[in-house]
Amino acid sequence: MFADRYSRRQAIFTACLVFCIGALFQCAAQTFTQLFIGRAVGGVGVGALSALSPLYMAEISPPEVRGSLMALEQFAIVLGVVVGFWLGFFTRDIPSSASWRIPLAAQLMPGIILLVGCAFLPASPRLLVLHGRYEEAKRSLAMLRLRTVEEAEEDPLIQLELLEMRVEATMIHRTLGTAENFHKSSSVFDELKTWKRLFGEKYRDRTMVGVLMMVFQQWVGINALLYYGPTLVRSIGFTGDTTVTLLVSGGIGIVQFIACLPAIVFIDKWGRKPLLRGGSAVMAFSHFAIAVLISLFSEDWASHSIAAWAAVGCIYLFTAAYGISLGPIGWVLPSEVFPSSMRSKGVALSTASNWINNFLVGLVTPVTIDYSPSGTFMMFAVAAFFAYLWSTYSVPETANVSLEEVDKMFRSSVGREESALKKQIEENVGLSDLVRRLGVEG
């Protein structure tokens, strides 16, 4: 609500400030309570940034690179995970509290960079148009496209982009029954009515795709491996040298980091469904194989070192499959299944599903691993198997398809209704005339 009412930039600045305060609490903590408070405060900031940052990037980026930036978000997340793990690895033997304060304090560096950088971030032209502030939107877009305001006046591509933003903003206002001053006049009740639409008949199937995408993204076990890697690695026989256990755990992040690269390149060429189905099948096989190996050899891993390393190989195979499928597609698919009028709220709800399930997996994994290591991996295998079934029978292929085609997949008329409304608005704001004029001149 804050980001919609005022500014993406101000919302990002506020969330970043909250995160930095939390990071300070963590690295300066003298008691467990202080550390807990710091983690909680920092978590609020991270949670807000995880929704605000991709939204802002999508709104300011040129259309031709918008999809790639969304896929790059997962790449950036994994890069942070890798850096964080190995920083902790190399400081673990410092004989003082600095061994854990240094990694926690390192969070402040990107936080402070973003905090200071917010002063130089241009306002979102899309949000300015949504608020009816067209001249400010023109200046912001000119800055983003490296043009002066005078050049923007003569640049047909910038004029085209601005008119497209006006069309989208008008569609949102008409679909939701709001006005251009909605950010000042709307109440919490009005916001709740808008959110309620996500669970209505028109949008329910799309909402389930966004929410379940994040459910499966978490319950296949990737963050369980990242959070409790050493514990899970010990469950497959590496109970001796702590350094070896940590190195094997650290390899999980590196494999995921590498696997993100082909996903960025092929996510549009191969499509979402083939990657989701193939990745889910490989993940289910990997977890099932690990569960079987633990059941057969957990009593005497020392005599079956080949089986232990085979289990490590299965963990890395799972991680690679996740990195090319559920990892990046989890951030792309929710932005594609919702029509423009509900996209920001649909993506926000999907992000909330991600964090809720992230919390639940982190809560459940230590309990299940103590009770039954093989059962824990079998639980992840079952989740991956259901992800395969879901991606096969319920997920539409959204790569390179129009809104009408997505609409047919959901057996809904909302896309067609918005398409007709969009054509009318394009005529009203002059976008159709500009396109025809550019076509004649070209």
UniProtKB/TrEMBL annotation:
PANTHER family: MAJOR FACILITATOR SUPERFAMILY (MFS) PROFILE DOMAIN-CONTAINING PROTEIN-RELATED, PLASTIDIC GLUCOSE TRANSPORTER 4. Belongs to the major facilitator superfamily. Sugar transporter (TC 2.A.1.1) family. Residues 1-399 form the Major facilitator superfamily (MFS) profile domain. This is General substrate transporter. GO terms for molecular function: carbohydrate:proton symporter activity. It catalyses: myo-inositol(out) + H(+)(out) = myo-inositol(in) + H(+)(in). One of its GO terms (cellular component) is membrane. It is a multi-pass membrane protein. It is found in: Membrane. InterPro entries: MFS_dom, MFS_sugar_transport-like, MFS_Sugar_Transporters, MFS_trans_sf, Sugar/inositol_transpt, Sugar_transporter_CS. The chain crosses the membrane at residues 37-57, 69-90, 102-123, 207-226, 246-267, 279-297, 309-334, 371-390. Keywords: Membrane, Transmembrane, Transmembrane helix, Transport. It comes from Dendrothele bispora (strain CBS 962.96). The lineage of its organism: Eukaryota, Fungi, Dikarya, Basidiomycota, Agaricomycotina. The keyword S-adenosyl-L-methionine does not apply.
